[in-house]
Amino acid sequence: MPMPWFLLSLALGRSPVVLSLERLEGLQDAARCSPGLSCHLWDGDVVCLPGSIVSAPGPVLVPTSLQTELVRRCYQETDCDLCVRVAVHLAVHGHWEKPEDEEKLGRAADPEPEEPRNASLQAQVVLSFQAYPTARCVLLEVQVPAALVQPGQSVGSVVFDCFEAALGTEVQIWSYTQPRYQKELNLTRQLPDCRGLEVQDSIQSCRALPWLSVTADGDNVHLVLDVSEEQSFGLSLYWNQVQGPVKPWWHRNLAWPLEPDSVRTSICPFTEDPRAHRNLWRAARLQLLPPRGWRLDAPCSLHAQATLCWQAPGRGPCQPLVPPLPRENVTVNMALEFPLLKGHPNLCVQQVSSWEKMQLQLQECLWADSLGPLKDDMLLVEARGPQDNRSFCALEPSGCTPLLSRASTRAARLGEQLLQDLHSGQCLQLWDDDLGALWACPMDKYIHQRWVLVWLACLLFAAALFLLFLLKKDHVKAAATGRAALLLYSADDAGFERLVGALASALCQVPLRVAVDLWSRRELSAQGPLAWFHAQRRRTVQEGGLVVLIFSPGAVALCHEWLQDAGPAPGAHGPHDAFAASLSCVLPDFLQGRAPGRYVGAYFDGLLHADAVPALFRAVPVFSLPSQLPAFLGSLQGPRGPRPGRLGERAEQVARALQPALDSCLRTPGTAGMGRGMGPEAGDRT
């Protein structure tokens, strides 16, 4: 029956080795010993009770290792069962104890050497056997003559015939003594099925199943069943997956229903087939797990090793970083960590098949999407020896070239410059441990060195044209590209509102695109303060602008109220108070570290002490106005702002516009005192 090749090539595995088994006659269990030992098998099974470990009073016999052998227990010529023979190897454990009077008197009184105590040793050895659905325990008595008793020496073995078990099952065997002087020995074995034995005709259960052969023809697989008329059986195809959960959708019953506890056998014929391995590798995928993790996703286990490699742009194959980084065995569908300090687009993961019959490889440069295309960087390998001796080589297609060598490679010619770049901090450290480190050094400035003069002339010409364009279009461009600024403040009183309005009007002349609730009262009434602030904040952030928090005594009190550090500020909430409404969104940005780059703070000289600003908001720049107006305007306008001289002129213009309104606030009774009252002790509470 033809089946898809890929399904069966992943579902079936290795066939066992064919075994020829010794034949035992009769139903009775038996025991025999090595020459010199005597042993006796107790009649019937015993109860398995290992008990606790006790101290040995002197030399005792203990089991040291277990060995198993498969045999046939036959009742008639063609009626046999599989049976497990167990051999227990014994040794003498412990020493004779000295009497107390001998320890006190010492050996001076008796200069003649004392003969070892002549006594034989006897032990009760328990064998416990489990193989579903069978569980047995037998007891063997073993006696060792005095001549063989040497502490620490092996004395021989005792062999038990035998434990019956079903074909293809897993058996577990334990051995210990009564009383128990050490941890019990244990052994687990997987028994073969009918195909692994040369006794199919003598074991009745092997005749219950048809013989199955599998052949492959291109992309099709043929299953051939040799079925006799009296056989009734079930046939299933299944996915033999070692790691991860079972995948039931690969299981198909192709014949009659299975009966409970029926005789079963399995065959996995494609474990050694190269085509199956190629199919499996095609289905495998490498996946990056931020920040420095990765995982190999595959439908079933792979025999593979992984290492990091360095992929130079356009320069041949990826070069494995072994050494200094070791190869590691891969466990599929399990997250693994890179031993790295930083990521780099040229660092790739290379999976190499460890199956000796075929060399397969899978490679992914996992940082290509997040860090951009491959860079023309030079990878330096640092080796550290004793007494802080360090040496450097550069990874090139021909190998790792020592720096400062006389080789005719690019790394050798630029060896001194690369070392200077490394010591001056221009190289990125990718990995570090006690034996060495990896550094990625930019090569851009060396690649185009011969074209420096040409590029410089072109850049100067372009700069001249650009400067001429700026001189003509400066005013129009500044007006068209003014940065957005959203002012948030607490309406402490009418004088403070006039001061904020003067600041907003002056910033519009910088030029900046200013949004403030003073100019949007109709929208505030229609939308509400919270909805208005949400819309303005989203627009400001999307356009690359800044939100300006203007601190005043009322604003500080509202912040403490939201931070549950002070009681509610009387009179702080008004129908158009956008500052109070905005704190529900502003505070999470600061608490979660999203504020830098989006917010700045400001307060007015004489109205508020610098330390009164809550500590949480000092995560962003906070400016005093008008004394720090140049820095404040530079922060608002960003990197595209005017030159320093022009910025100073604009700061003077804003200061002149602010001063009358600020003087009016300072002359208002109680205002200056309110600012002085919000001193360091008020700000330090947050």
UniProtKB/TrEMBL annotation:
<keyword id="KW-0732">Signal</keyword>
<keyword id="KW-1003">Cell membrane</keyword>
<keyword id="KW-1133">Transmembrane helix</keyword>
<feature type="signal peptide">
    <location>
        <begin position="1"/>
        <end position="20"/>
    </location>
</feature>
<dbReference type="InterPro" id="IPR013568">
    <property type="entry name" value="SEFIR_dom"/>
</dbReference>
<keyword id="KW-0472">Membrane</keyword>
<dbReference type="Pfam" id="PF08357">
    <property type="entry name" value="SEFIR"/>
</dbReference>
<keyword id="KW-0325">Glycoprotein</keyword>
<protein>
    <submittedName>
        <fullName>Interleukin-17 receptor C isoform X16</fullName>
    </submittedName>
</protein>
<feature type="region of interest" description="Disordered">
    <location>
        <begin position="665"/>
        <end position="686"/>
    </location>
</feature>
<keyword id="KW-0812">Transmembrane</keyword>
<keyword id="KW-0675">Receptor</keyword>
<feature type="transmembrane region" description="Helical">
    <location>
        <begin position="451"/>
        <end position="471"/>
    </location>
</feature>
<keyword id="KW-0395">Inflammatory response</keyword>
<feature type="domain" description="SEFIR">
    <location>
        <begin position="482"/>
        <end position="634"/>
    </location>
</feature>
<dbReference type="InterPro" id="IPR027841">
    <property type="entry name" value="IL-17_rcpt_C/E_N"/>
</dbReference>
<dbReference type="InterPro" id="IPR039465">
    <property type="entry name" value="IL-17_rcpt-like"/>
</dbReference>
<dbReference type="Pfam" id="PF15037">
    <property type="entry name" value="IL17_R_N"/>
</dbReference>
